[in-house]
Amino acid sequence: MAENISIIKALPPITPESEEFWAACERGQLLIQQCDDCGKFQFYPRILCTSCGSASVTWIETSGRGRIKSFTIIRRAVSEAYEPDVPYVIGLIELDEGPTMMSKVLASDVSAVSIGQPVAVSFERYTEQVCVPVFRVND
């Protein structure tokens, strides 16, 4: 008898450094860290400022806006879990606040995605416990 195995997308590791980020995603907020000493913004979550080494970093809510810095169109799924999404876009998003993050880019026409295109954050639920930020192009 075959087992009913649920196929799920790769889930992000939730670490002590990133717990607040993932909790905010559940609330529909995109947070990044800002150094209390030098004022620089950073992403991904860390315990120290990558600019000055300060241990004093604070979570702040972003505008949720940015631009596509680079991207690729995925035309072949890496696993069965991603087959319904093909084709889809993975991009480097430069947030208006400065940091760059990698994310899925949602577009009605993946062939129309371009570098420099403005995007806005949205959230995609992977499981009951995990909601991930994705970016939607301004079609």
Which parts are unreliable, with pLDDT below 50 for 5 consecutive residues or more?
none
Specify the CATH class of the largest domain.
Mainly Beta
Mean pLDDT: 93
Instruction: State the major sheet.
Output: 5 strands, mixed, barrel
Give the domain tally. 2
Percentage of residues in helical conformation: under 10%
Q: Strand order of the main beta sheet, please?
A: 4-5-6-8-7
Question: How do the strands and helices of this protein lay out in sequence?
Answer:
Elements: H1 19-26, E1 31-35, E2 41-42, E3 57-61, E4 65-74, E5 88-95, E6 100-106, E7 118-125, E8 131-137
Parallel strand pairs: 6-8
Antiparallel strand pairs: 1-2, 1-3, 4-5, 4-7, 5-6, 7-8
Can you describe what's shown?
- With 139 residues, the chain is mainly beta.
- The chain folds into 2 domains: 15-61, no CATH class; 63-139, Beta Barrel (OB fold (Dihydrolipoamide Acetyltransferase, E2P)).
- 6% of the residues lie in helices and 37% in strands.
- It contains 1 helix and 8 strands; from the N terminus they run H-E-E-E-E-E-E-E-E.
- The chain has one helix at residues 19-26, and strands at 31-35, 41-42, 57-61, 65-74, 88-95, 100-106, 118-125, 131-137.
- The protein has a 5-stranded mixed β-barrel.
- It is globular.
- The N and C termini lie far apart (47 Å).
Q: Gist?
A:
The chain has one helix and eight strands, in the order αββββββββ.
